[in-house]
Amino acid sequence: MTYDIRNGGGSRLDDILGSDALAALCTGCGPITGGIAESASDHYPVVATLDLSWPAP
Fold first, then answer.
1. Is position 55 within any domain?
2. HSE-CB for 28 with a 13 A CA cutoff
3. Residue 8: its pLDDT value, please?
4. Number of Cβ within a 10 Å radius of residue 44
5. 44: which residues sit within 8 A by CB, 6+ positions away?
6. Residue (of 2, 5, 1) closest to 33 by Cα position
7. Where are the alpha helices (DSSP H) in the chain?
């Protein structure tokens, strides 16, 4: 899925899809903006930070 993130379109944000178990490990997520991300594509890259410490929380 893709969402327009500015009025009038032009910039889009993609989803990160995962299971409920993966979502439970997510400690943060969001778009990468600024720098080359502003002109490299019509989509902003999305990053998720996961807690992969062992044993699992």
1. no
2. 4
3. 56
4. 19
5. 5, 11, 12, 13, 14, 31, 32, 33, 37
6. 5
7. 20-24
> Other CB atoms closer than 10 Å to residue 25's CB: what's the count?
16
Residue 57: inside a domain? no
* 12 within some domain: yes
Residue pLDDT tens, the chain, 57 long: 555 665 555 567 677 889 999 999 999 988 888 888 888 877 778 889 999 998 865
Question: Can you say whether the dihedral through the CA atoms of 41, 44, 49, 52 is positive or negative?
Answer: negative
Domain count, the chain: 1
Q: Whole-angstrom Cα distance, residue 57 to residue 30?
A: 22
Domain hosting 26: range is 2-50
